[in-house]
Amino acid sequence: MAVAGWPEELQQVVQDDFRRTSALASYRWKTADTALQDVVRGLDDLLDLVAERVQAGEPKRSRRQTKKSTQGTAATALLAELPFADVADLLGIPADEIDDMLELVTRRSRADRRTALRAIKQLRAQLQHIEVTKDHSRLSRLFSFIVRLFLVLGTAVGSQSVSELVAGDPQLDAMIQTGVGALVAFALERSTAALRDAWHEREPATVAAEAHKSVLKALADAAPADDNERTVWAFRILVCSARAWVACFQLEWAFTEKLEYWQALDEIPEAIRTDSADTLRTIHQRLDALTPPKP
Fold it and tell me: Which top-rank group of organisms is this from (predicted)?
């Protein structure tokens, strides 16, 4: 299995988890338990990348300075248009736990980073416990959460983040990094308290259908001419793509078709970088032809 653009760590852990779940489905318990150990090690490696991205997106200012910098600027006018509610949904944060989304996504500080890194250590401890107990159900949920963390952080930090793909206002880029970092820290803090993961409370096929529809709609929207609006547009596509990726993973769907779907999603960042409307249109057509199984 190979999907261009995926980090080796993600490629390997997805392949190992497919081997694990296939063994479970055919009652090959010994094979499944062996694969479980490989998945645990793979997720631990993926957590290294998550930790790197958390630190790479560390705010350089205090919480008060960060909040002050988001007041009265042109970039701030677009803050409410950023799809942070979709990011929170992907991270499994129930909507009723966030009283003020804009307050949350503008308040990140170095303390949030430290909280996130402590939570990552606790996730590693959970993985070690799973390796001993062979708890496949718990591993499936943790697999989903760690991959979601990785994909969400990738929209704001790294080579395929919105700031690398679109030459926009650095202040708007910083606001996106701050918002994503705050939501990731909040999700990690919730995970240490064993709070419910709302992402798993809905039927997978329904979630996949919604995510598929959202990514098609985002791809169909024409790129704005204004740099700041283009950044918002690109960030929305990246978030929708991440949601579709995870939703597809949870489906009972032929693995070869999942790979085709993921490959199409993986080509989106480069199409945004090169400002290729034709490529985005082609990706839209490919994804439309690969519609996930209906609920």
Answer: Bacteria
Residue-range definition of the domain harbouring residue 69: 8-289
Question: Do the domain assignments include residue 2?
Answer: no
Tokens, residue 44: 């631990």
pLDDT digits (tens, 9 = 90+) for 46-103: 999 999 999 886 655 444 444 444 455 666 778 889 999 999 999 999 888 887 787 8
Cβ atoms 35, 23 nearer than 8 A: yes
- Residue 3 belongs to a domain: no
Residue 143: inside a domain: yes
Long-range contacts: 44-49, Cβ < 8 Å, 24+? 44/124, 44/127, 45/9, 45/12, 45/13, 46/9, 46/10, 46/13, 46/146, 46/147, 46/150, 47/120, 47/123, 47/124, 47/127, 47/146, 48/9, 49/7, 49/9, 49/150
110 inside domain: yes
